Amino acid sequence: MFNTLILPLIICIVPILFFSVLLIAGPKIKFWKVLFGILLGLCAFFPVQLVDEYGVRNLIPPYYPTRIAFISFVFLAELIKGACITPLSGKKNTALNFLLISMMAGLTFGCGQSFVEYLNEAGKAFSKGAQLLWLPLILKFILIDLINMACTGLAGLFIYTCKNKTPKWLLVLYPFVLRALFEFFNVKLGIKWFSIAVVLLALLECRIKYKAISNTNDDL
Q1: What are the pLDDT digits (tens) for 4-59?
Q2: Cα 62 to the chain's mean position, in Å?
Q3: How many CB atoms lie within 10 A of CB 40?
Q4: Checking phi first, is residue 129 left (phi over 0); if not, alpha (psi -120 to 50) or beta?
Q5: What count of other Cβ atoms lies within 10 Å of the Cβ of residue 144?
Q6: How far apart are CA 43 and CA 139, in angstroms?
Q7: Which of 26, 45, 187, 204 falls 20 to 30 Å from 72 in CA-CA distance?
Q8: Cβ(106)–Cβ(81) below 8 Å
Q9: How far from the centroid of its chain's Cα atoms is residue 89's Cα?
Q10: How many CB atoms lie within 10 A of CB 183?
């Protein structure tokens, strides 16, 4: 029972608690804002999960190529995540706070996805009478968490520019493209080096775009 349910829950909850402590202790983000970010992530997770389970499969005809359903799901998932973080106030938050709270929402979303991924992999292993390979699975959880943090952070920066400055329309493309690349390279349980590169690129883009916005640089 511990290995099958409690341990995966702990693995998914620990990153949220750890990042929450970092935000409160480091940039001094208020507790209620961190909690709000977590709630926004949950608000995005449940509809995206419903879309994954029932929406895309029913909306896309079976004779369409699989890549059509894949692209549709990535687009809808990032669109829903972006929509769910729009309630964040652009006036009461600095660009850094907006970015970090958005990343908190993305991490919460990613942890939910990781738990669902675990249930899927555990079901496959159980049906075959095999054991789970915990190390690659945990590494996959980490990648899922990080890519969701980065993509939601980039979406947050775009929303911040819409609320405070001239919208940087190019920014809206980054979450879709980076998430699509990540999903393309991270198809199986085994860790793909290209997916790791995409995660690092996404995190780097968060820093670059934040610096550009905080310095009021228009060259995004």
Answers
A1: 667 777 778 899 999 999 999 988 899 999 999 999 999 999 998 887 777 655 55
A2: 28
A3: 26
A4: left
A5: 24
A6: 25
A7: 204
A8: yes
A9: 20
A10: 18
